[in-house]
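Sharing in case it's useful to others searching the archive later.

Someone asked me privately for the predicted structure of Outer membrane protein beta-barrel domain-containing protein, so I'm posting the question and my answer publicly. Question first, with the sequence:
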Amino acid sequence: MHKIIFSVIAALMLVTPLFAQEIEESSSTASAAPAEISKTELVLKLEIAPSGQLDLKKAITGLLYNIEYPSEQQASEAGFNATAELYYYPVKFLGLGFGVKQQFDRKIENFGEIAITNFYVSVKPKLTLPADWGIDYVYGLFQGGYGLFIHDYKLSSLPTYDLIPTKTEGGLYYAAGIGCEFNNFVFELLFCVNESTIKANGIVESTGEQTAGSLDAKYTTTNINIGYKFNL
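And my answer, the predicted structure tokens:
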């Protein structure tokens, strides 16, 4: 996780000077800027995650067994999110903001349904393109915050598939991606990660066994986003 965060910070430090240089050059080029960037903007988006994966570490144990799962659990259906973001531009090429993302119920193999509400801050370095390219802007996205899990994971023990009582604790949310803007419509590709801890929380009804231990879970998706930007 730390390597990913450091990589995101390093990438932001590298691209920001390029965006600043581009803004300076565009001021002297008539065809560069299709429109003035608004100081404040609200972006509403629908996000589609065709695939999703749950990566697991550690184990939950009982008196007679050690419950282990394959390190990767796949989502059995596509995921859908609704997102709202508010940005302020202290300079023309850099947006700073915060957002809320609601992931609706999605089934994960052996783990039941997952639903998450993410609260995060976002950084958006923006690059203006020449008018004859047909696209107003391209930009990067770097997000970081906290994910609140709406449901507890419902684990099924293997191979008996007994239901294991657990408690799910939320954790870090972070994401990085790219996007483009055309006539206030936005199109994005975003790689997202939600971390959580799944703790044993009671007795397996079918066997009467007391469970113990925990699983470290990392839920990853690649999202295709479509939205609309409102200038405020």
